[in-house]
Amino acid sequence: MTCVLVTPWWRRRVAGDGSAAGGVAPTAILDWRDPSVRSLARATSSEDRLAGLRAAHLVIAGAVRPGYAVRERQPISRTLRRGRGSCSQRLAILEGVARAQGVPTRVRGLLVDGRFWYPRFPRAKFLVPSRVLVAWPEFRVDDAWVPVGELFGLLPELAAGPGFSNDGGETLFDAVSRTAIDWDGVTCGTGGACDLSATVLADLGRFDSRDELFRRHGQTLSGPVTRLVDPVLSRCAPS
Predict the structure, then answer these.
(1) Which residue from 62, 95, 126, 134 lies 20 to 30 Å from 52 (Cα-Cα)?
(2) Domains contained in the chain, number
(3) Residue 72: which CATH number?
(4) Is residue 5 part of a domain?
């Protein structure tokens, strides 16, 4: 049983019109003008925009170890300095690096069933939020928006391998480099475990930045709960 008490249940999370221009400007979360972020952006930059983003993803995967932090609005410069972060925080670093490289970004807001995270917390299912707000980045490359799940190939191509079970040490951030993370049922019928569309409770549309998404819809956990549990969960890592 998921827990509704730890979520901001009083919010009316209504889908927007789905349009967002995105951009490259720094934000409170995507503070890419910080020297640590700019250094990472320079080290992975490439004339081939996709190649640069893939390189940045691989560097972040190695430099920032996964954890269960829940402070969604944490600046990416702080996450880099700490050397650990949640899946969402690591995705945010990739967004910031993209903007530093001149690649516009935006995010898609998805409300995902909390039961999707049961395998990670088998003994504490009662504490899992009923709905988890996922900020899924998209990158403007060659006049087309590329979701983070397709940085390493099209979803039908990536679906040929094993899917993502949300169990063990691999996170969504790590998994996009090897398999399809399919929120829309594109890979339905391929025989793999890549179709995650059944876990999506609501599509909130696109937003110019994750700052705007969280400003309009809040974080997954209510503010007091976030401040209470983040110091503990941020030090825990997937096994």
Answers:
(1) 134
(2) 1
(3) 3.10.620
(4) no
Residue 110 lies in a domain: yes
Residue 19 inside a domain? The answer is no
Tokens of 80: 């880099």
How would you classify the pairing of strands 144-147 and 200-207?
unpaired
User: 131-141 and 105-113: which strand pairing?
Assistant: antiparallel
Cβ atoms of residues 139 and 148 within 8 Å: yes
* Structural domain boundaries enclosing 181: 35-230
**What are 54's two structure tokens?**
């893939």
In a domain, 29, yes or no: no
Q: Is the pTM of this model over 0.85?
A: yes
In tens, the pLDDT along 131-141 reads: 899 999 999 99
